[in-house]
Amino acid sequence: MGVISAIGNSVDENHAALVNGKTGVIKGGGNFPSRYSGILPFGEVLMGTGALKTTLDVTEYGVTRTTLLALHAFKEAIVDAGLTGAQLSSEDTALVGATTVGGMCLTDELYANTHGDADNIEYVRSYDYASVNLFIQNRYNINGVVNTMNTACSSSANAIMYGCRLIKNGLANRVIVGGADALAKFTVNGFNALRILSDEACAPFDQNRKGLNLGEGAAFLVLEKEADVAGKKVYATVSGFGNANDAYHPSSLSPEGDGPYLAMKNALSSASLNPADIDFINAHGTGTENNDEVESRAMLKVFSTQPNFASTKGFTGHTLGAASAIEAVYSILNIYRQELYPNLNFRQPIAGIGLQPVEAYKSAEIKHVMSNSFGFGGNCTSLIFSKV
Amino acid sequence: MMTFYINKAACISPQQTFGEIDIEQLRASVDNKLKAIEPKYPHFTSNALRRMSKSTRMGAGAALPLLADAVQPDGIIIGTQVSGMEENGKFLNQIIEYKEDMLTPGNFVQGTPNTISSQIALVSNNKNYNITHVHRGLAFENAVIDTAMLLNENPQNTYLLGGVDEICANNYILDTLAGWFKKEDCTNRNLYKSNTNGSLSGEGAAMFCVSNNKVNTLAQLKGITTIHSTDVAVVKAHINHFLLESLPQGEKIDLLLSGENGDKRALEYYTSCEQLMDSETPIARFKHLCGEYPTASSFALWLACSFVSGQLTVPEHMIKKPGAALVYKNILIYNTHKTAQHSCMLVSVPE
């Protein structure tokens, strides 16, 4: 596993912050130019784009911050898994990544390019979503299936699911799956125009929540099929996944939460588990009025006894296309370390619902963790990770 | 395993491919672009249409008639690269022009590429699997692979598969700057005589209802492969391997449907694929009909379905090398996007 986020540049650093309840959401990091830098809180990776290039030894032309974050996490993951160069370039190794910003973190440069500034064309080749994974593919000479997915905020959950299915269907023996997104004027202004950015640290599942904080980061995970893992470090298994569409509204969930409900149901049935088997839910929990209420109602519909749950968005902010991959790492840490991390900034349960997330770090016996992700276009995905 | 039956297909393109189909008459490009002919969209009010991007209109417009008298598909799988980019471009312009203040979110929400698949789900009240692949020139191919895996996992199901892209102002400028569209005037009639870099810009939406059911079916996809390389020899060897693996013993390719696009840098890849055919194999080209776009292979798949099912004959203007065959049992589609991403699909008479 590899991860970079507002709470650290490695799995170990992220883990330490989760244990200590130390948030990465701050006002004014300043790695992206926006009038909202310093005014609104963000989950920024506190390493500048130049520093990332140096650390990663990237000297090529036109590499975006999204790609650099992806590369950072990718590198940690393949080192952790001990993948060799030969394994990486073997035809049975696939790469599936997600992003919702891609090269559009370069708002101003893109604008200049498309409004006649042909002298500054460094980024014309990297404006799209695929540019992130194509860069990684070229750098590591990956020859198996390579794919990029964008279903908004559930993108990297779908990348993980697609990776599992490539293995299941015999199209790959190992898959590197994940997602990356950089903070960008593009998304900050998009969510601000939707009036769902909070001017305070987000408070998922709290009665008085004011909206979400955006964050940035990346995470990648190396998946291998069961037959190939003897003698290797294994963190957990992906035991189930489900995707469903809410079919209600382009940017908000239905009051009934059909999409979230079906995604959780489908994941349970794909894992052949009962609701009572789930020990913990890493909730989508963005801190918006709409999401947290609908997600709560959907959880109550699926689970007759509500399992422990928490959102980690209070640590990292909402990292969009990276969120599900980062939270997959956290869910796996729940299992691997047998512990739960707090849902930050929670004070009062939502009226009429009354659900109370995990509020403090604690050890716990954890066998199965569900991780939820819901995106624009009603795209809902639940993953289930299990103890080996 | 990478095989399924295509039961129904629909295509909105720069040619007359939707409703009254006539591909004999070639519609000309204008200003180096081949813009899709948009039909009336009976499923949407004019207000709804104004809010939708062209990709969403074309995608939903091609898909919804296919779903009209069918059972609800068990999933909607779309490949697209640039859909939503026009909306994103408008939003980026808002950000700069209004200095990040008082923006309207409509363009931002419509700009996410899964708007097509979610709009189809919304209108048809489909709560099943809903996915959007955006891997540039292999976005549609990944959608095909996803669908083939789904049918392997759930053999009784049916799925809606599609490829959609639109000509978007910003992308057209960026890709022209990067040398992928011709800078000099060129028409689609003269596309293959051109000896310069770049192609003509195109767009379209092709939708397919697919399943393992071979009754009343148009065509069978017998195989698909993707190749990532700029090395002509590597690409050629990979195509050869694909043919050996997916073409049944004793059968041959009856038509090569080539993605040749008038870009002199891409020609050597197409030529090397042609060299793998025997001397009798007819060759037809399709990019002068649809233009170059990342999911143009979905237009080629629609054509191949129409040819193997006998619904259409190959028009004279498509033929690069004639052959004697009147019936096409096996059609090979070979396409490359920007010479680094390549794919092959084998489309056959259902058996």
Tags for this model:
A: about 400 residues; alpha/beta; Peroxisomal Thiolase, Chain A, domain 1; 5-stranded mixed beta sheet; globular; B: Peroxisomal Thiolase, Chain A, domain 1; 11-stranded mixed beta sheet
Description:
The complex is a heterodimer of chains A (388) and B (351). Chain A is of the alpha/beta class and 388 residues long. Chain A is built from 12 helices and 14 strands. In chain A, the strands form 4 sheets. In chain A, strands 1-7-6-4-5 form a 5-stranded mixed beta sheet, sandwiched between helices. Chain B has 351 residues and is an alpha/beta fold. Chain B is built from 11 helices and 11 strands. Chain B has an 11-stranded mixed beta sheet, sandwiched between helices. In chain B, helix 2 (54-67) packs parallel to helix 5 (115-124) and helix 8 (232-246) runs parallel beside helix 9. Chain B is globular and about 65 Å long. The two termini of chain B are 15 Å apart. The chains are: A alpha/beta (388), B alpha/beta (351). Chains A and B meet through helix 5, helix 6, strand 5, helix 7 and helix 8 of A and helix 3, helix 4, helix 5, strand 3 and helix 6 of B.
Q: Extract low-pLDDT stretches of chain B.
A: none
Rg over C-alpha atoms of chain A, rounded to the nearest angstrom: 19 Å
What is the topology, as strand order, of the major beta sheet of chain A?
1-7-6-4-5
Enumerate the spans of chain A where pLDDT stays under 50 for 5 or more consecutive residues: none
- The H/E string of chain B reads EHHEHHHEHEHEEHEHEHHEEE
Q: Please work out how many helical segments of chain A DSSP would assign.
A: 12
User: Which radius of gyration of chain B do the C-alpha atoms yield?
Assistant: 19 Å
How many angstroms does the end-to-end distance of chain B come to? Answer: 15 Å
* Strand line-up in the sheet with most strands of chain B: 3-2-4-5-1-6-11-10-7-8-9
Number of domains of chain B: 2
H/E series of chain A? EHEEHHHEHHEHEHEEHEHEHHEEEE
CATH superfamily of chain A: Thiolase/Chalcone synthase
